[in-house]
């Protein structure tokens, strides 16, 4: 069976890790037709916008995209292309699984963060409060509709993937309105899933709990900012951002991208770890219901890391990006 996939190489190390993931996908029995489009810094330079409308159009047409990391300027420049894609295409669920791999990180972590992707403190509603720019404020927007939608997604994900528990993450003890709205909505949704255990945790306590005993947690459902932070923490538990995949999913469309950034200082050096992008491709295959091929690649990645002969620098080896991808293909 063949698939038409939008391909967004991204900035910095993006093209290299995307090349590695595509190489692995092409080594399977499936057929892929990749429609490549440009977003980020190169698009900004050539077309005056980091997110040309054609990028969104091709995702709408193909329904699925595989994406590399895109640089987001700190403090100035264009707003996050990643956030813009999620909001414009209504990709409301950010799914970030972090599962222990052989030889690296903690051995007892298998946590999936389901993060609300469209509002919260990433809504983009912010401004300076005075002419001197000495005070600024950001609006945290939480709606019942979006909270209900992401909670339902988390419980459905747990049910479909034989997960036993969903934990809602919040700060309702301090954020009395927005935090309570998210938490209470999640509680209401949980009543429709009596077979799945439900609990809640305050976000700062959750951070400590994950470091001390990650094995007690299963699926986390979170507002936007909290999910961004906690999923990075979970990535640290399993070996770092170089092994942490992610996906953005809506009702009809999906864009898959790794958690890590574009790391421009390593661009073009063929040294960064492509595992996160390869495992992101695994998530994409699962979304396409190609479970057998997804599992074949995942097991090959596990085998390559377990053997430890051709690891990248972040995992203690000296193999290059493409060399590791080729080794994964050998293991397939």
TrEMBL record:
- The lineage's top-level taxon is Archaea
One of the protein's GO biological processes: tricarboxylic acid cycle
User: Its Gene Ontology molecular function terms?
Assistant: isocitrate dehydrogenase (NAD+) activity; magnesium ion binding; NAD binding
InterPro entries the UniProt entry points to:
IsoCit/isopropylmalate_DH_CS, IsoPropMal-DH-like_dom
A Pfam family cross-referenced in the UniProt record is: Iso_dh
Which PROSITE patterns does the UniProt entry name for this protein?
A: IDH_IMDH
- Looking at the record, the residues that make up the Isopropylmalate dehydrogenase-like domain are 4-328
- Alphabetical UniProt keywords: Oxidoreductase
Return the similarity comment.
Answer: Belongs to the isocitrate and isopropylmalate dehydrogenases family.
- This protein is called Isocitrate/isopropylmalate dehydrogenase LeuB
Lineage, broadest ranks: Archaea, Methanobacteriati, Methanobacteriota, Methanonatronarchaeia, Methanonatronarchaeales
């Amino acid at each position: 069976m063949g698939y038409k996939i939008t391909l967004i190489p991204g900035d910095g190390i993006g093209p290299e890790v995307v090349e590695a993931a595509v190489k692995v996908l092409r080594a399977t029995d499936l057929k892929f037709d990749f429609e490549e489009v440009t977003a980020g810094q190169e698009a900004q330079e050539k077309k005056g916008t980091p997110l040309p409308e054609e990028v969104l159009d091709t995702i709408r047409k193909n329904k699925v995209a595989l994406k590399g990391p895109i640089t987001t300027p700190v403090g100035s420049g264009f707003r996050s292309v990643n956030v813009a894609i999620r909001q414009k295409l209504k990709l409301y669920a950010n799914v970030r699984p972090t599962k222990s791999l052989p030889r690296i990180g903690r051995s007892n972590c298998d946590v999936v963060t389901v993060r609300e992707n469209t509002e919260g403190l990433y809504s983009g509603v912010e401004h300076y409060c005075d002419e001197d720019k000495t005070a600024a404020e950001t609006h945290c927007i939480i709606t019942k509709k979006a909270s209900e939608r992401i909670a339902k997604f988390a419980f459905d994900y747990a049910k479909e993937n034989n997960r036993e528990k969903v934990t809602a993450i919040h700060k309702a003890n301090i954020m009395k309105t927005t935090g309570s709205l998210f938490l209470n909505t999640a509680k209401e949704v949980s009543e429709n899933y009596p077979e799945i255990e439900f609990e809640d945790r305050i976000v700062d306590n959750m951070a400590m709990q994950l470091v001390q005993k990650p094995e007690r947690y299963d699926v986390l459902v979170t507002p936007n900012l909290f999910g961004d932070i906690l999923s990075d923490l979970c990535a640290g538990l399993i070996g770092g951002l170089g092994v942490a995949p992610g996906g953005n999913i809506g009702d009809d469309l999906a864009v898959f991208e790794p958690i890590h950034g574009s790391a421009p200082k390593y661009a073009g050096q063929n040294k960064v770890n492509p595992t996160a992008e390869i495992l992101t491709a695994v998530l994409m295959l699962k979304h396409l219901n190609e479970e057998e091929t997804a599992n074949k690649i995942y097991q090959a990645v596990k085998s390559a890391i377990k053997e430890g002969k051709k690891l990248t620098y972040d995992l203690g080896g000296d193999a290059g990006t493409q060399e590791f991808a080729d080794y994964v293909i050998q293991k397939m």
